[in-house]
Description:
The protein is an alpha+beta fold. It has one domain (13-148). The protein has helices at residues 17-22, 64-72, 81-86, 103-114, 143-148, and strands at residues 25-33, 37-41, 45-49, 52-60, 90-97, 117-118, 134-137. The strands form 2 sheets. A 5-stranded antiparallel β-sheet has the order 5-1-4-7-6, sandwiched between helices. Strands 2-3 form a two-stranded antiparallel sheet. Strand 2 and strand 3 (45-49) form a beta hairpin. Bound molecules: zinc ion. Residues 103-104, 125, 128, 130, 133 line the site of zinc ion.
Amino acid sequence: MGSRNSGNPRICSHQIPDPLITDSGLYVVTLRLGRKKRIRIGKLGVIEFQPGCYLYVGSASKNLRKRIERHKRREKPLQWHIDYIRRHCRFIGVTLAGIDEGECSLAERVIRSVDGKIAYPRFGASDCNCAGHLIFSEEIKSWKETFLSI
Length: 150
Ligand SMILES: [Zn+2]
């Protein structure tokens, strides 16, 4: 993937009003797992997760606010892969983005930005063919700084 001059959503706190107005768009949820843990992730089975930061890339074509509120809640019916690990993690924050980029390419950019790696193949990627939408990074610098640079 080369760099593009246009079409890239700029992900930073100054851009937050846009997705909030349309109530739709891409987002990155950042979670932190305090210690190594084996967690059953739906049909993916039991996975051992290392302590560190987990960044989940998702999108909502509508009801973005409700979706984010749902990600914040620890207890809920387990529907998506991310719900299974969310229960064991601290919620660090969420970054919103415009919708003119696919989740998969945003995930690739997040990987580069935090010098991370796919946490587990196909995690959160049931509806597409990419490597996965959950990114692991042992330590991300400052949360804000990280997203300003994506
Ligand atoms: Zn994907």
